[in-house]
Write the structure tokens for this entry.
Amino acid sequence: MAKPIYILNGPNLNRLGTREPHIYGTTTLADVEAMCRAAAGDQPIEFRQTNSETQLIDWVHEAIDNGSGIVINPAAYTFTSLALFDALKMFPGPIIELHISNIHKRESHYHNSYVSKVATAIIAGLGAKGYAAAVRAMRELIGSA
Ligand code: CA2
């Protein structure tokens, strides 16, 4: 049985599609999950969202034991969480950091990502479609394409 790709989403992303459509579009997180499942094909995925830093770290630990790759949109924890950085550092496989918006085009508090320092690759600014691109890229990285 193939190990799943963990697709982890951080705080407030459960509200996707309900505000700031000029930045984040109108796609909901349920739509994003459907796009990821379509892109994954027969490759299993674990698609999750939490507003809790602790939970996000516990899921990274679960991925360390059980996952083939991690696609992560840590939202605000990208810029604040050394604990998440430490957890991701322990993951032996590929990590794709994902942002719906191009964080580098935005205010300076969105510029210093701890996650980028441990990520294999970064996708930012493709909108919700970035998730499907990340899943396709991850399938190549883990040899399941
Ligand atoms: O562009 C991204 O995907 C972000 O990770 C989204 C985060 C922000 O803190 C990052 O810097 C960039 C914010 C998520 C806010 O969630 C939303 C909730 C409702 C509508 C739109 C976004």
Observations:
- The pocket of CA2 is lined by residues 12-13, 15-16, 18-20, 24, 73, 75-76, 78, 99-101, 103, 110 (CB under 6 Å).
- The chain has five helices and five strands.
- The longest strand covers residues 5-9.
